[in-house]
């Protein structure tokens, strides 16, 4: 008994334990405070909980190789810490965006912050996973909360439909993931990352390869990569806008981080097999995301297709399968969280007489009616298009550079062309704001929304002054996953 407990290190999961406890406290507080007071109190409490959890993540001593606990079920390192801080930041900012929106839509309920906290706990477990079973447990904990969040506006047919579609397709992807795990276990005899790595080499059994493909399919669904993207446009459009902003940030970071760790960890010896799949998925996502968004008139659907394209660009770094590629992945995720949440802050500000509007044409003449909002949204659009010297340019530059170094020239060329095509619909939004005649006047932006929009706009616009703040950290932690 002493031996077993000697291997259990609760310190490695302090952030997860703290957030789980915080979720329970917030739930009980909400039940006793009453609906009106409870919603704002639980939202503020959840944001503070995320901040404290981030401090725990940053202050934890990891060492050069990280820390393993719970009989090698969990592994934490500087790499996982980078992802966790991004997840916590994305969740906190998404909650800031939600408060005023839900109050104006009269759907404010204290359960929402609690569900966001529980989903975040699942995400943190996902990136700490060192076993396929831990991976699945974290993924399902995240997904169960996200299914409810997607249909949070229960009086809206669109929101209910979004939640149902996400649930059905999510259950399908989870089944595929679990089937892949069972195949890998059946043929390799283990689910532990450390034990699988030496067993899975360049010449694996066919069953292991099939199992790996199913695992990639399950995780590709979570990052909304083509051809597993079908849920994204409907969920982004149907879910309340703050929920869409949350979906565009933290869950994408968690799923992409998990995909990186699975492919470079237990399947690290099978690069020749999975690299082909990632290249295909990356190309399909970049091209589809760039082309499909051209005819969109709803800005939330446009952002959904945009997110598909951006996940394709992120996968370019993973396809490179080297430390520079992982650096590009981390930089892209960090920049995308900032750009995405800033853009959604501007979308949440699209209200006329208290009612939310979502059409791109509703932005007509915004530069004359609300110049600061137009400036911020214009910055985000230029950045997503990859225009220098904004942050989005650096994120694309680093993934493409890694692909060139890995001799993936065709992938790089297709990526650059897809980026050029995608620039069309970003520039169309700017054209509507600056060159069309004003048709409506938006309501004044709520303080919390203005704070998120302003801060993310500054980071996006001024990233070029000191990009090393993120790039150097990303490069340092990437060498822990793929040396050199």
The strands making up the biggest β-sheet line up spatially as 1-2
Coarse shape: globular
**Gyration radius, to the nearest Å?**
21 Å
Helix tally equals: 21
| Terminal residue distance | 40 Å
Summarize the helix and strand pattern as letters. Answer: HHHEEHHHHHHHHHHHHEEHHHHHH
Write down the overall mean pLDDT. 88
Helix content bin:
over 70%
Proportion in β-strands: under 5%
Total number of β-strand segments? Answer: 4
What's the story with the biggest beta sheet? 2 strands, antiparallel
Low-pLDDT runs of 5+ residues are 1-7
Structural class: mainly alpha
Task: Tag the structure with descriptive keywords.
single chain, 484 residues, mainly alpha, two-stranded antiparallel sheet, globular
Compact summary:
This protein is mostly helical. The chain has helices spanning 2-6, 14-33, 35-59, 78-104, 111-128, 132-150, 157-188, 193-199, 206-222, 232-238, 241-247, 250-264, 271-292, 299-320, 323-348, 366-369, 371-385, 391-405, 409-435, 447-462, 468-478; strands at residues 67-69, 74-76, 351-352, 355-356.
